[in-house]
Design brief:
This protein has 360 residues and is mostly helical. 67% of the residues lie in helices and 2% in strands. The chain contains 16 helices and two strands. Strand 1 and strand 2 form a beta hairpin. The longest helix is centred in the N-terminal third of the chain and has 34 residues, at 71-104. The chain starts with a helix and ends with a helix.
């Protein structure tokens, strides 16, 4: 047999060239007890937030349905859209800042600027909240980004609470809504700062990182070598906005439901009692979900209530309302949101009463 026959197999006069078997791709099973990896920072999970947003869009688009022409439904739709549109620009600002921090800011910048001791970092972060000219919707994604960059959660939460309450835009609006009453502006500033600092210290004392979403427990995220900073900014912005936007819509729907279903006579029933009026306006601030740039004008219109009750409305509103609770649940986790919101409400009411007794 010559060399050709050695290289080519002959079967019944037909040359058959042997082909190697195709490679087999083996899929390794998950080890016992292991869990799949969480979504990476740039991935977008659209199911729940976008589901709520699409549900609202369906309601708005079905304007031809007979039951949607009812005055109560029209009022609900108007309030829901107004709250969403009022908060949307600030949510865009917050998610843009979050994406920029994640992609462009050096990972160790915030840890170098803030004091090393967490107990001192909390009040410094609370005062730093004055530099973010936005409402509570902007502060949530920024605080989330700070935690992922290595900032202690206590300081990030102090920033989250103070930013929508003490920034120059809010304080100027308060001064305009209460002309000739600078004590109200000072009381709002001091009560809000005190609440933010106390909540940060309470987190250092009692908080557990297991209450936070798994992605927030991993530090040192941000720009990775070999990746485009613009791409990371776009993916981070897309993820934060789509995720938080749906929860914003859920909160707006809940606030609109309260606005439509609760009659105005309920306000008169609670205005006569000093203590009940404080508690009632604190709860009202949670349910109305008014943006912090506009809540001072709402508080000024509640002339039947005491200054202490109106101060509680101004302090609680930017820190705890329905849309903010929904945003916190979507960003940090439900285990965190209900604990943090409840404690913040109690601390904010207490600070309002104490500061009001000294200044108002």
């Amino acid at each position: 047999m010559d060399k050709a026959d050695e290289l080519v197999g002959v079967t019944e006069g037909v040359a058959a060239v042997p082909h190697p078997a195709p490679p087999v791709r083996r899929i390794r099973p998950w080890p016992p007890g292991a869990r799949p990896r969480p979504w990476p920072p740039g991935a977008v999970s659209r199911s729940r937030p976008l589901g709520a947003a699409l549900a609202l869009a369906a309601v708005l688009l079905l304007a031809g349905a007979p039951w949607l022409d009812h005055p109560a439904v029209q009022a609900w739709r108007t309030v829901c859209v107004a709250i969403t549109l009022q908060a949307l620009p600030f949510l865009l600002l917050g998610t843009a800042l979050s994406g920029a921090i994640n992609a462009f800011v050096p990972a160790d910048l915030f840890t170098r600027v803030l004091p090393k001791r967490p107990a001192l970092a909390v009040p410094v972060a609370g005062v730093a909240g004055a530099v973010l000219p936005g409402c509570e919707c902007a502060s949530v994604p920024v605080a989330s980004s700070l935690i992922r960059r290595g900032v202690t959660p206590a300081a990030a939460f102090a920033f989250l609470l103070s930013a929508p309450a003490i920034n120059p835009v809010v304080l100027t609006a308060t001064a305009v809504a209460f002309p000739g009453n600078p004590a109200m502006v000072a009381a709002r500033l001091l009560a809000s700062l005190a609440t933010a600092a106390v909540m940060g210290w309470l987190w250092l004392w009692l908080g557990k990182e297991t209450w936070l979403r798994p992605l927030l427990r991993h530090r040192h995220t941000g720009h990775r070598h070999g990746h485009s900073r613009r791409t990371e900014f776009r993916l981070g912005f897309q993820h934060d906005f789509l995720h938080a936007g749906g929860f914003l819509v859920v909160g707006a729907m809940a606030a609109a439901t309260f606005n439509v279903t609760v009659p105005g006579s309920v306000l008169d029933a609670f205005s006569g009692s000093p203590w009940l009026s404080v508690l009632f306006l604190a709860v009202l601030a949670v349910l109305l979900a008014v943006c912090s740039e506009a809540d001072a004008f709402v508080a000024a219109s509640l002339t039947g209530f005491s200054p202490t009750a109106r101060l509680a409305f101004l302090v609680v509103g930017p820190m705890v309302d329905l849309k903010l609770i929904a945003l916190q649940a979507g960003t940090f986790g439900r285990a965190f949101a209900w604990r943090f919101s409840t404690a913040t409400t109690v601390v904010a009411v207490t600070a309002s009463v104490l500061i009001s007794g000294a200044l108002l």
